[in-house]
Design brief:
Structural class: little secondary structure
Distance between the termini: 86 Å
Order of helices and strands: HHHHEEEEEEEEEEEEEEEEHE
Strand content: 5-15%
Number of helices: 5
Helix content: 10-25%
Largest sheet: 17 strands, parallel
Radius of gyration: 30 Å
Shape: elongated
Number of strands: 17
């Protein structure tokens, strides 16, 4: 190692004593052009740490740059100095929320870089040299203007998280299947119409986010993605799920709202780990009878569909906490709803209901019941057993009387009974019975 190489090694050390030694060595050796070398560091410090630094750079400033983590988030950067390649110890670099339109080639030569955050800049392309960052584990590129990905991205064999959301991608390269260590792939808000077969090779994938694209099909061999837990497909144009969709047996969260689904797989009950199922804003008219055989389900959204009936065994969802059924064409609810002992939020507004199940009072954990814009003419006495109920919205129905038991709802904070047919006497009576409740009439 020649003297200049030795000096550069010491100068890039995170240890202040080593940096001071390097500066001393340089002053004793006129052959070393220290001024030129330090100019790179001055530009880096001004860019990444503080623009206030002038020409008098000290050992402590170099040590700051030589740390394994640097954050220059929201620093109004429009360019990155080429000296970035000097930061050999850098493992985590945050350049998010700036105005970068391009990046220096030397950025892609950092040997220890494991996490790079470039989200919310103005990048429209990524260099093929980005594939040189072979130690990279996390790459965040969301909120840019990327239209394609470099082929050499496949060299990032240690990559675990890749965020490409909010770009302008119209396709993914087949070679994305080479990123076999990926656990999270985020592609929301792009212009994807199809997915490559290579996606099936990502056997370590746990999260796949494809919201807000233009997908009409889900052409994935689901059997290969056995570790997948989160699948987000909201706001696409998917009309049917593949036959093997329910082979994704470790799925915990599935988001399919704002698509064009008309039916669901008959073997939906194979998804025994499922906790969240969002099917809102589709064209569903009927649900599979085995929907109630999902023992872990906590959140079920079926709002804005065309449902006229619900499976009776919906009451078997013993862990269900949130059930959204608003904006359908329901005329009745299954009596099984009363068996939902953990249900906290029930939204059944904008349907054609004339009554509520007699045993609704057995859903003992219910806190929010929204039933506006129906045709409900009478309420069951059991409603008064909902001791934890905080909100009861019954506006725009056909009520002419209220059950005496409503007066027992001591936790009720708000009762909305506007636009019903209740006589003044009935309204005054409930006001007396619930003195601490806000009553909207």
């Amino acid at each position: 190692m020649n003297p200049q190489e030795k000096l550069l090694q010491l100068l890039s050390s995170p240890n202040e004593a080593n940096v001071k030694l390097a500066l001393t060595m340089a002053k004793k050796n006129p052959a070393i052009h220290l001024k030129e070398i330090l100019q790179d560091y001055i530009e880096l410090y001004q860019c990444l740490v503080s623009p206030r630094l002038q020409k008098n750079i000290k050992a402590k400033h170099l040590v700051t740059l030589n740390q394994p983590e640097i954050s220059a988030q929201r620093s109004h950067l429009i360019m990155l100095p080429k000296g970035i390649g000097n930061l050999k110890h850098l493992r985590k670099l945050d350049l998010s929320d700036n105005r970068l339109t391009s990046l220096p080639d030397r950025l892609w030569s950092l040997p220890q870089l494991q996490e790079l955050n470039l989200q919310n800049n103005q990048l429209n392309a990524l260099s093929e040299k980005s594939g040189n960052l072979e130690q990279l584990q996390v790459l965040r590129l969301s909120g840019n203007q990327l239209t394609h990905l470099p082929e050499r991205l496949q060299n990032l064999v240690h990559l675990q998280k890749l965020d490409l959301g909010s770009n302008q991608l119209t396709f993914l390269p087949e070679s994305i299947g080479k990123l076999t260590q990926l656990q999270g792939l985020y592609l929301y808000e792009n212009q994807l119409k199809t997915l490559p077969k290579g996606l099936e090779k990502l056997t370590q994938l746990e999260s796949l986010d494809l919201r807000y694209n233009q997908l009409t099909l889900l052409p994935i061999n689901s059997g290969n993605l056995q570790k997948l837990q989160l699948l987000s497909l909201d706001d696409n144009s998917i009309s049917a799920l593949p036959a093997n969709f329910c082979d994704l047996k470790n799925l915990k969260r599935v988001h399919l709202s704002y698509n064009r689904l008309t039916t669901l797989p008959e073997n939906l009950d194979k998804l025994q780990q499922l906790k969240e199922l969002d099917l809102g804003n589709n064209h569903l008219k009927i649900l599979p009878e085995n929907l109630g055989n999902l023992p872990q389900l906590e959140d079920l959204n079926l709002a804005d569909n065309q449902l006229t009936t619900l499976p009776e065994n919906l009451g078997s969802l013993q862990n269900l906490k949130d059930l959204s059924l608003y904006c359908n064409q329901l005329t009745t609810l299954p009596s099984g709803l009363g068996r939902l002992k953990k249900l906290q939020h029930l939204s059944i507004s904008y349907n054609q209901l004339t009554t509520l199940p007699d045993n609704i009072g057995f859903a003992s954990q219910l806190e929010h019941l929204q039933a506006r814009f129906n045709q409900i003419a009478a309420l069951p006495e059991s409603l008064g057993a909902l001791k934890g109920l905080k909100e009861l919205d019954l506006c725009d129905n056909e009520l002419t009387t209220l059950p005496e038991s409503l007066g027992k709802l001591e936790s009720l904070k708000e009762l909305n009974i506007t636009n019903n047919r209740l006589p003044t006497s009935e309204i005054e009576k409930i006001k007396i019975s619930l003195p601490n409740c806000k009553i909207l009439v």
